Fold this sequence. Notes:
By secondary structure, the chain is mostly helical. It has one domain. Helices cover 61% and strands 0% of the residues. It has helices at residues 2-12, 32-43, 53-64, 71-89, 102-122. The longest helix has 21 residues, at 102-122. It is globular and about 45 Å long. The relative contact order is 0.16.
Amino acid sequence: MNTLSHHFTSRLDESAISHPLPEIGLDGVKSSSEVYDAAFRWLEHKELRTPSREFRMMLQSYRDSNTDFPVHASVSALCDLSIRRIEGIVRIDRAARYPVPKRDIEETKREVEADTRMTKRAF
């Protein structure tokens, strides 16, 4: 998410933070319960508390029903959370169009794919 956010925010405001989501500590996490614990700790970061309220409620609902950590639902929630953080940082005109050159899209795609491969290897 932060790689995508960086490419987006840099087009709108060079001085804006480019990583709206803090790093999540998943080192040593081996079970679904530990992923839940790490996610809840992460969501307690000061800058995430308010925009992540719905995400925390969703996770708690899954956890209360003794369900494994909801990876797919969490990815969607992370996208929403990242967007809310960016909107709070960068003032954008929702009616305006922001053209993105194809080479920039391809560069972003390569970076996201590289980040994904690196993350997969870590697990």
